[in-house]
Amino acid sequence: MIPEAREVHLSRKDRKVLEACCRSPVTLQRDLKRARIVLLAADGRSTRSIAKEVGVQPRIVSLWRHRYADHGLEGLQDKPRPGKQPIYTKTTDKRILKLLDKPPPQGFARWTGPLLAEALGDVDVQYVWRFLRSHKIDLVARKSWCESNDPNFTAKAADVVGLYVAPPAKAIVLCVDEKPSIQALERAQGYLKLPNGRALTGQSHDYKRHGTTTLFAALEVATGKIIATHSKRRRRVEFLDFMNSVTATFPNRKLHVILDNLNTHKKNKDWLKAHPNVQFHFTPTSASWLNQVEVWFSILQGQSLSGTSFTSLKQLQEHIDAYVNAYNDRAEPFVWTKKKVRQRRFKGRRITQL
Known about the structure:
The protein has helices at about 10-25, 30-40, 45-55, 60-70, 90-100, 115-120, 125-135, 155-165, 235-250, 270-275, 295-305, 315-330; strands at about 170-195, 200-220, 225-230, 255-260, 280. The model has no long low-confidence stretch (mean pLDDT about 85). By secondary structure, the protein is α/β, with parallel strands linked by helices. The longest helix has 17 residues, at about 315-330. Strands 3-2-1-4-5 form a 5-stranded mixed β-sheet. Helix 6 crosses helix 7.
């Protein structure tokens, strides 16, 4: 049953607002219909005739006539609705974070969305994923870090960085290290055409081993050039043989050599006495990344060794030698930009010693 029609009296100001609403091309359909209902009702039209013209049910016309008559233009706005109560609350979020602080189930390396949902028991896996995304928590990506416990970290690091930033006058600064056990692997290689027409370079999973080589390398900090040689092993005798070849390359020059804390690099007092122009500088414990030759080893791996195939150990060594020659033709020194060195412990990073 339709309630008795309410008389609608429009002020001049309200009429202008409603007419402007009807003319505007950006007015929502629901607001347009409400404005037309009130304007037609103010003209004395009946509820049924308004419903037929606007295209709504008579009860809808009666609703907005009453709402405008009681509350004016504010009555034409939607009232706030309570809506559905959320299933998951901040308590659920705290439970997920608390679970992430615990080790994953036995046999698993890390937590996953399904594992978290299963452990919680009453939380859908889709909500777990949404929560992780909103908090920028990535369960797959892994980040490694290196924390040095060397009590003399600051002094040693400052010594090494000082050689990079302000090398001694008329002296050569070299970064020396070894890349051991480089494998000569023979793999079938070629182009692979996918069903969608895309062509990719690829290699076979099967391979044949042809031995390994150890690469000794010295990076000249001032020029970025590399001195390299191959060896079967990385003992003290091979290291000192390499250092003999390095000193022969720079006769009568003062050499400052940056090394990591490998045992073969230390306890070489007799050799140093025989070569008074050479001085060893050691990076702090667990901080070999301060040695710039490590950066070059990464470049060598990415540009020369990854995705290649060798039929013999000799071919691998010749390949590396060719790369070193090509690299030296365009070598540029690395630029050390960080001048402040300080030792700082990890704090508030949820790091657990297992």
